[in-house]
Amino acid sequence: MISAWIVASAALLLVAVVAELAARWWLRHRSAYYVFPPGLRICMHPDPKVSPHLEPTVRFDINSDGERGDDVPRGRSGGALYRVLVAGGSQPEGYLLDQHTSWPGALHSMLQRPSHRARLGASAVHVGSIARSGVGSEALDLIFERVLPRYPRLQAIVILVGASDVLRWLEQGAPSSPPARVRTEDVFRCHPEGRVGWKPGTLALEELIRRMRRRWLRPVDEHAGSCNWIGKARAMRARATEVRTTVPDPTPMLEHFEHHLRRLLDRARAHADRVLVVRQPWFQKDFTPDEAAHMWHGGVGQAWRQDVTSFYANEVLARLMAALDARAARVAEELGVEHLDLMAILEPSLEMYYDFFHATPAGARAAAAAVAATLLRQLQQSSLPLEASRCVDSLAS
To answer: Which terminus of the chain is more solvent-facing, meaning fewer CB atoms within 10 Å of its CB: N or C?
Structure first.
């Protein structure tokens, strides 16, 4: 009896070890890179102090392709699918905006109108977003390298990136050397390079079960008081012991941005019929006291997760963004890639921005309308012409 129990226990242990090793092999060799885990669903209730213009409930749903957006139509007969991929940083991610309020979500709704589908020559339109907070040019270059090969030919890739390059450089103290290389785990929440072990919580089998649960059961994670750290970061900026009005030569940061922007645009052009660079907008004006109180970017350190006492002046941020924007426009022109300037479209006000970079629902609608108007144009040009403003207004309404 005892020997039989020992044999059975040994057999079960062997089966468990084999299953764990098989799971590790599968994760390493068969799983893919995803910015967001497929099947992820979050329901957030943003801190109302962040902005009175934000919605009280925000859905953040990831489809089976790892995109924020609806599921991609499959197996359509007798019609073409016009598929758009949006990529970049926190502004297109729209973390505190509802699924169809974020500008990629609003773009999806706008392009789905019958008249717009007809202009695009499609029976259906799909817009999915893999934009994520903190993604700069180097991270987006890595994302495209890992993600685009599994996609079919796309009709359009829309890119908005740049603010994180500036902010990361300032957070690190504006160094004269290139930043440390971006790590896989900082970019992809689901990838085959994860560390595994033999302790509970580190097993590959557990990771597989988590992934299957998200994909098949689609549980909803509830987040109350989302991003209440923004209020703390604003308070830190308001009581900063040092506000720097000068900055070292930004050339190293700008060269790093340009290098990776060129690379990622080459990758995008190889996988899409059309590539559009949406140049990063920012809230630029002489701030009123109320507007200044909404600002929190520009810290020497990561104000979103640590105490920071030194900040760069908003005027410094604006100058750096203008220099980076000029680089983005020049690179797009040299590569023959369309680019869109949102600065003239997004009014610098708290109705459009809730901080230096991020859009309110109204700002997201305006951005989506501008992108939609550009994609709907028959002739490709380098930037949105002034005469398109009436088209933008009609789309935003």
So the answer is: N
**What is the rounded radius of gyration, in angstroms, for the C-alpha atoms of the chain?**
23
pLDDT tens-digit map of 231-252: 999 999 999 999 999 999 999 9
**What is the Cα–Cα distance from 123 to 83, expressed in whole angstroms?**
11
Average pLDDT over residues 313-331: 98
Domain residue ranges in the chain: 1-30, 65-192+224-396
Chain segment 64-93, per-residue pLDDT in tens: 999 999 999 986 655 799 999 999 999 999
The 3-state DSSP class for residue 199 equals coil
**Amino acid letter at 205?**
L
Distance CA 131, CA 370 (A): 18
Residue of 189, 195, 184, 185 lying closest to 211 (CA atoms): 189
Fold of 65-192+224-396: Rossmann fold (3.40.50)
Between residues 94 and 198, which one has the greater pLDDT?
Answer: 94
DSSP 183: P
**Closest listed residue to residue 350, CA positions, set 397, 299, 289:** 289
Mean pLDDT of the chain: 91
How many whole angstroms separate alpha carbon 323 and alpha carbon 333? 16
Instruction: Give the pLDDT confidence score for residue 386 in this predicted structure.
Output: 37
A 10 A CB-CB count for 209 gives 12
Cα angle for residues 300, 303, 308 (degrees, 5° grid):
55
3-state class of 84 per DSSP? strand
- Sequence-ordered alpha helix ranges (H) in 56-120: 90-93, 103-111, 114-120
